[in-house]
Amino acid sequence: MKVITRFPPSPTGKLQLGNARTALFNYLFAKHHGGSFLFRLEDTDRERSKKEFEADIVESLSWLGLKHDTKEVWRQSERGDIYKAKLKDLVDRNLAYISKESELPTEAKADFASPKKREGEKRDEVIRFRNPNKVITFADLIRGEIKFDTTELGDFVIAKSMEEPIYHLAVVIDDAEMDITHIIRGEDGISNTPRQILIQEAFGFQRPQYAHVPLILAPDRTKLSKRRGAIPVSEYRAQGFLPEAVVNYLALLGWNPGTDKELFSLDELIQSFDLTKVQKGGAVFGEEKMRWVNKEYLKREGAPSLIPHIPSTLSAGKTSTQVSAIAEMLFERISVFSDIQKDSESGELDYLLKEPEYPKELLQWKKATEEPKSHLEKTLSILANVSPENFTKSDIKDALMPYAELKGKGNVLWPMRVALSGKEQSPDPFTLGACLGKEVTLVRLTHALAMV
RNA sequence: GGCCCUAUCGUCUAACGGUUAGGACGGAGCCUUCUCAAGGCUUAAAUCCGGGUUCGAUUCCCGGUAGGGUCACCA
Q1: How buried is residue A109: exposed, middle or buried, by Cβ count under 10 Å (0-12/13-18/19+)?
Q2: How high is the ipTM of this complex?
Q3: Hits for CB < 7 Å against strand B across A residues 369-398
Q4: Which residues 19-48 of chain A have a CB under 7 Å from nucleic chain B?
Q5: Is residue A109 pLDDT above 50, yes or no?
C-alpha cells in the first residue's frame, strides 16, 4: 500500500517551528516509504484565515525544502458542496441531526478549573453527531494503544449549519478523499482522534494509522505558542539561518536514529527516518544548539557566503580584497548571518569604521621585554614595502613574520594589533591589516608611533 | 476538576533486562597562541519516588508524585 501523508495547516498564523516539524515528519515518513506528502489548507474559518498567512506558510515550507505532491491547492473553503452532501447523507441516515439549541437544556457541564470560555455567537440551530457512546481504541504508532470512552463527548457539533462544517467533519472527509494512510500530527491532536474516528465509522471510511508526535516546548516546558516564544520559521529565515540547519535541528528534536550522528542532509533524514524512534515526551526548543548546527552548515558554505550579509556601513569604501578579508574574519566568529549585524551594532567592529581611541599603555604588551617604539617603526617600514594590491593576510604575515620571530612575536605583534584595533582582544594583526587595507594600516601605525 | 499523554545529565538524546549509564549543545579546565575567535584534548553533570516480577531492572507491571495536553457553534 502506498503511503500518503499530509500537512493541513490552517492559515490563521505564520508557520511556527512546531508545525514545521510536524510537516517535516510527515514529509520524511512519506518519502522514506516512497509515498506522497500532500498539502491542504484548512481555511473553513473565514474570519481568521488570511492570505498573508497562507503565503507565509507556503513560502516557509518551500524554503525548508519540503515539497509536497499536491497538484492543485486543496482548499477546504472551496469544498462546501462536498461537505454539504456528506452532511446531508449523515442526517438522512439519522446519524446526525439538526439540533434546536434553544430547546436544549443549557449544558451545565463546562465548568472546569479555568473557565475561560471563548465562544462566538451561538446559533439557534446546529448539526450534532449522534454519538453511539462507545469506547474507541486506536493504535498510535508512537504511543501504542490509546483508549477513550466517547460518552463524555455527548452529541458533539459537527457543523454550524448545512453549509458550514466544522473542523472534525471536514478533516475526516478530506483525509478519506485524499486517501491519507497516515496521520502524523501533534500530541495535542490525541483528544480529537476519538470523535474523528466516530465520524469515520459513520461514513464507513477506512481508519488511517495515527501517530502523535510530542510537542515542542518553551523553556518553561509548556507548549510553544504564539504567546509564549513561538517564532515563525520565516523569522529564522530572516535572521539568516540556513534551511538545512533548521531542518536538521528540527528533525533531531524528538527523534533520532539511535546513532551518534548529528548532522543530516534532507536525503539522509529520509533514509534513516523511523516513526517508531520518535520520542514520546515533549522536547524543549534550544536555540543554542540550533545555532551550533547552523554554524556547522555555515562552515560548509565557506567564508565568501558571508559577503552578501556584510552591512554596507562596514564595506563602504573598501576594496573587494578587504571585504573578503572581513568575511573571513567574521566567518569563524559567527554562527548565524544576523550575528554580523549584531556585532556591528554593538560596536564590536567599530575599528573597521574609524580610527580607534585607546590609552597608549595598551600598546605595551604585558609580557613585553622591549619597548614598542622601535618595533612599530620597523613594522611600519616593512609594511610600507608591501604592495597595496597584495595587502592580504598571508602577504602581511610573510613580510612581517621573520622580523617578529626574531624579536619575539608578542613584542612586535601586540603593539601592531592594538594600533589597528585599539582593543585588548581582537583578531590577529595580519587579518586586521588585510581588513583595513594598506593605507589605513600605515596611518594607524604612524599614529601609534606618535603616542609612544 | 474530568479524560488523555509523558518522565535518563541544565537542554536534545543513546542504551533487543546484564554497560564504568554513551553522544551532542551549553559549562569548566588544559593545549595551541601576541590577545580574542577558531581548533584539539580533558572534565563535571542524569535514570522522579515506592512497591513488585526477575539471579539481575533505566528498561517489564502496579501505585504515587510531577509535568504537559485537551475539554468551542477554532483549527
Answers
A1: exposed
A2: 0.95
A3: none
A4: 42-45, 48
A5: no
